[in-house]
Amino acid sequence: MAEGKVALITGVTGQDGSYLSELLLDKGYTVYGLVRRTSQPTLGRSLINHLLENPNYHLINGDLTDQSSIDNAVSETQPDEFYNLGAQSFVPESWRSPMMTSDVTGMGALRCLEAIKRVKPDCRFYQAGTSEQFGEVREIPQTEMTPFHPRSPYGCAKVFAFEITRNYRESYGLFACTGILFNHESPRRGLEFVTRKVTMTAARIAHEVDECLWIGNVDAKRDWGYAADYVEMQWRMLQQETPDDYVIATGRTHTVRDM
Question: Is 132 marked active-site?
Answer without folding.
Answer: yes
